[in-house]
Write a structure and sequence with these properties.
With 378 residues, the protein is of the alpha/beta class. It is 43% helix and 17% strand. The longest helix has 18 residues, at 68-85. The two termini are 20 Å apart. The relative contact order is 0.13.
């Protein structure tokens, strides 16, 4: 029997959350599951919609309900759509604590048999009383929260009181076969100018959360190193202005959104992610799979991927000095860097495959459906 699983996100841009959604949409066994993507009609989500269509996923547009008046009008329509699709599972992907709450409410009111929410990221700010109250409502609607890391699970328990019986950690996975390519000398020369200068790569949304400004400050102290920033986001104008002000715009290249991340990883000497907080960053897992040593902030989630001193170096968040020290030490010791890269690749292969992630999510669906045999529309 083929059952329907609806995937949904309330975000307005394409990032790590949406990439994980695509992995699930493409990886679920089509002889057992019919995936449907509910999406908003927003320009920032175009990469998600296009890629899902290419995977043969059925698409359904839904309105974005950001204000109470919109919710009152949109919720009944949302519920009617769910009832017409008759999903066995409604799976919302939350890039923050309370995003997607109206979708989860609609799924619960429509009596979808299993309501699942993957929490990809939680910030460090303590929740307000209103946020805690809203999360209590969300918790009532959700049968299972899937946390992408132990750090996210800990915050869900401690900050929002999510009970243990509703909480499960399923770590992000990556398509290992896409990485570990040979470097393209022509691409490296085009981006770095020559083969003599070290290349440091970061792949992340250009958002304040990612801490790019501290990497720029560190870059100003390394005059022979080229820095590549792959990704788009609202911070790009400010970061470009900072690079100009620091006098490093000639060797800091903002590449925008790139579809050739495996090729970029192949040509770089070192990968850096200076985030202020994280869930479990795909970019770090991909760098490990590409056998690149990683320098990253010692924040929850990242520290579950990078083993300090073995697969890379973890540094104090929001510290340009700490980034400078770690990057300089690895660029100066090529043998140590190569050794760390190989250890990271072995760890990624063992712990972070996309097949393992998809299998764990599908098993969670099955378990919930055995526990909760209600039918939609009952």
């Amino acid at each position: 029997m083929i059952r329907t699983v609806v995937q949904f996100t309330d975000s307005n841009a394409f990032g790590g959350t949406e990439r994980v959604m695509l992995q699930l949409l493409g990886g679920l066994d089509r002889s057992a599951w019919r995936p449907v993507l509910l999406h908003h009609d927003l320009p920032g989500l175009a990469p998600l919609v296009t890629a899902a269509r290419d995977l043969g996923v059925e698409l359904r547009r839904v309105p974005r309900s950001s204000r109470l008046g919109h919710v009152g009008a949109a919720l009944p329509r949302f519920m009617r759509l769910l009832r017409s699709e008759r999903p066995a599972v409604f799976h919302a992907h939350l890039p923050a604590a309370l995003t997607g709450k109206y979708g989860l409410l609609g799924a619960a009111l429509a009596r979808v048999p299993a309501v699942v929410a993957t929490v990809h990221l939680l910030d460090e700010a303590p929740p307000t009383a209103r946020e805690r109250l809203n999360h209590l409502m969300v918790t009532e609607c959700v049968d299972r929260f899937l946390a992408v890391s132990d750090g996210v699970a800990m915050r869900l328990r401690g900050r929002f009181g999510v009970p243990e019986r509703k909480l499960q950690v399923i770590r992000n996975g990556i398509e290992l076969g896409r990485f570990g390519l040979a470097a393209d000398p022509g691409l490296r020369a085009a981006l770095a100018g020559d083969d003599l200068r070290p290349v440091v790569l970061t792949v992340a949304r250009l958002d304040a959360q990612k801490g790019h400004v501290y990497l720029l400050e560190a870059a100003a102290r390394m005059p022979r190193v080229v820095f590549l920033f792959a990704g788009e986001g609202p911070e790009r104008p400010r970061l470009e202005a900072t690079a100009r002000a620091l006098g490093i715009a000639d060797r800091v290249h903002f590449l925008g959104h790139r579809a050739d991340v495996p090729e970029l990883l192949a040509l770089c000497d070192l990968f850096v992610l200076p985030s202020l907080y994280e869930g479990l960053p795909l970019s770090v897992l991909e760098a490990m799979a590409a056998a690149r040593p990683v320098v990253a902030s010692a924040v929850g989630g990242t520290d579950e991927a990078v083993v300090h001193g073995e697969t890379g170096l973890l540094v104090t968040p929001a510290s340009a000095a700490a980034l400078f020290g770690a990057i300089s030490s690895l660029l100066a010791d090529r043998e140590r860097a190569v050794r760390m890269g190989r250890a990271g690749q072995a760890r990624a292969t063992r712990e972070f495959s996309v097949d393992g992630m998809v299998s764990a999510v599908a098993a969670a669906y099955e378990e919930l459906l055995q526990r909760r045999p209600r039918n939609i529309g009952d």
